[in-house]
Amino acid sequence: MSSSSALSSAVRKIKWHVLPLFVVMFIVNYIDRVNIGFVRQHLSADLGIGAAAYGLGAGLFFVSYAVFEVPSNMLLQRFGAKAWLTRIMVTWGLAAVGMAFVQGETSFYAMRLLLGAAEAGFFPGVVFYFTQWLPRDQRGKAMAIFLSGSALASVFSGPISGGLMLIEGAGMHGWQWMFIIEGMASVVLAGFVWFWLDSKPRDAKWLTREEQDALIGEIEAEQLQRDAAHTVKPSAWSLLRDPQILIFCLIYFSVSLTIYGATFWLPSIIRKMGHLNDFQVGLFNSIPWLISIVAMYLFAALAARFKFQQAWVACVLLIAALGMYAAGQGSPVFSFVSICFAAIGFKAASSLFWPIPQGYLDARIAAPVLALINSIGNLGGFVAPATFGFLEQKTGSIQGGLTGLALMSVVAAGVVFFARIVPREGRAALKLQPGAPK
């Protein structure tokens, strides 16, 4: 078998062996993160948690998530993906179960902080895993498939969470049973991850030696190309002064702001459309995310064919901006339709964004820097629900919040389109060209 054939065979096996598992992991992860969107009314009725407290609690998850993200990903490099991703799943599953036993605002805040700390490192850990297992030209497609897990989770979480909330018994409400069952699903899945996942390509018994050699050789060759442009190993701390890293953080912050603004408040918008029970709200909640799955694959295919990733990210951010602005201008039904349109943009932006920093970063420091971008970007998940909750409690409307999200998406579209983001291994060559930017 030739080296190219062995590499193609290895990549094909990896996609079938690893990607489905990561998609399932992301589905249960995302459900445990955002399922409080379906219990807002119950938290208010049973525990007296108002709109502002709900928004703050929903967002506090992302504060502890951001604090522990980089340390978690550094520990993943030390202990290996198999052990560390299993640990993450067990602890976030138990923390999700603990949400069933909150008694008021203080315990609600504490459990959301604990859940964020437990989950920290999962997403950037998977992104880093791809840099160790897949050649550069395969990572964009893998990211699109992996990120479809969040869209699938948004599709499934509505009917599943709505159905589980119909359970009553053992002195507990349906929303408590929802937290317990969905949290325990993560713990059970962690056991499967431990037996199925391998930390390094050389550990994978399902790859032949030829396939392992071809894959490792290709990834090492990519690293040698970076080494040729860098005589000194870059550090994560030095990259904090790199303006392009700050651009990445800003762009992903804007994307996360819109995603979580829609995620945590969409069920409330749907409830205003009519007299719907929890299960019906869950079914309607699935519609925007079903649409977004199609959009993610469509835009990923267009970006792969016509290149210039930054222009495509800018395009979908403008779609998100238009949809979020329109959502604040009409009836609940019109708002729902507008968010369906916005979902095309903000979910596609999420999948199209990550290949840009992946191609820019040196693989030796990719893990902590990707974690940094993800953690700072995900602070949008704190700002959006906290702001929406405050606005609703003070004004009775979230129109100002929706307009703000639209403006942030427009700004991010302009930044990503006009920024000159060049892969780090190509910057030295650019500087040698006459007239190249300094």
Automatic annotation (TrEMBL):
Compartments where found: Membrane
Sorted UniProt keywords: Membrane, Plasmid, Transmembrane, Transmembrane helix, Transport
GO CC terms: membrane
Name this polypeptide is given: Major facilitator superfamily MFS_1
Residues in coiled coil: none
Molecular-function GO terms, alphabetical: transmembrane transporter activity
PANTHER family in the cross-refs: PERMEASE-RELATED, TRANSPORTER, PUTATIVE (AFU_ORTHOLOGUE AFUA_6G08340)-RELATED
Membrane topology: Multi-pass membrane protein
InterPro entries according to UniProt: MFS, MFS_dom, MFS_trans_sf
Species annotation: Caballeronia insecticola
Main location: membrane
Transmembrane segments: 14-31, 51-72, 84-102, 108-130, 142-165, 177-197, 245-266, 286-304, 311-327, 333-354, 366-390, 402-422
Residue ranges of every copy of the Major facilitator superfamily (MFS) profile domain listed in the record: 18-426
